[in-house]
Specification:
Number of strands: 9
CATH class: Mainly Beta
Radius of gyration: 28 Å
Number of helices: 2
Number of domains: 1
Shape: elongated
Helix content: 10-25%
Distance between the termini: 71 Å
Structural class: mainly beta
Largest sheet: 8 strands, antiparallel, barrel
Order of helices and strands: HHEEEEEEEEE
Oligomer: single chain
């Protein structure tokens, strides 16, 4: 009886060793697929933002404190390769708190870099022009300045060639000219803004 059980034991061991489950466990793991980033790049986002400015001698409390309002971005461009996109970018910030109305808008060229071809993380930098306006019933202060923007974000795929994009940006104005009620002024307003938000990107 003992001798007759040996072949059965050997067959059971062989079945376990060479079973499909064991073979699949030893199969090599495929590397992560590269993200689909090619052709047209279009992105739009919305969220809260805070803005402030240095305005010595303005004589009005328009931008003295950092104020929270509504901000947004829009980009249209193209992918040079899966890790690099170039786009025209619009940024905006708005806070209407009667009797004072404040708004910042900028237009520039943005470069987005993706360190990894398989990840949605990106860093961004842009340069362009910016306009900041603050007004009430008596005063209208406007500054046109150069603009530099830095930011980070992450694309979360939600469909074919569509991602939910989370982002954070810092916008800084420098140089420029200020007008008060339409007249050129020696006062120079230096605006800045912080944006956080979410939007959708097509790529």
């Amino acid at each position: 009886m003992r001798t007759s059980t040996v072949p059965w034991i050997a067959a059971a061991v062989a079945a376990l060793v060479f079973s499909p489950a064991s073979s699949s466990a030893q199969a090599p793991v495929a590397p992560p697929a590269e993200a689909t980033r090619a052709g047209v790049h279009f992105s739009i986002g919305l969220g809260p933002g805070s803005a402030s400015a240095s305005c010595p001698g303005c004589g009005a409390d328009f931008f003295e404190d950092r104020l929270t309002g509504v901000s947004g971005i829009a980009q249209l461009g193209f992918f040079a390769n899966p890790r690099l996109a170039v786009a025209a970018e619009f940024i905006g910030w708005l806070k209407n708190d009667a009797p004072i109305y404040r708004r910042v808008a900028g237009l520039g060229v943005s470069v987005l870099g993706y360190p990894s071809a398989t990840s949605g993380f990106f860093v961004k930098g842009s340069v362009g022009g910016l306009r900041a306006i603050a007004e009430d019933d008596l005063l209208l202060i406007q500054t046109d300045a150069w603009m530099a923007t830095t930011g980070i974000g992450y694309d979360v795929p939600v469909g074919e060639n569509v991602s939910l994009t989370l982002y954070a940006n810092y916008v800084r104005g420098f140089g420029g000219t200020t007008w008060v009620n339409g007249a050129s002024s020696p006062v120079v307003v230096t605006p800045n803004a912080i944006q956080v938000g979410a939007g959708f990107t097509v790529h």
